[in-house]
Model the fold of this input.
Amino acid sequence: QKYKNILLMATGALMSPITCQQGESIPAIAHAVVVSS
Done:
């Protein structure tokens, strides 16, 4: 068997032009899935 544990993670940012122009922080989100055998 080649892999014991696998971690998959998808990330993203909730960006809008107004938020970027005002210099505010950018909200982000991430989902993680662990596959182990």
User: Anything to note?
Assistant: The mean pLDDT is 89. The longest strand covers residues 5-13. The chain has one helix and two strands.
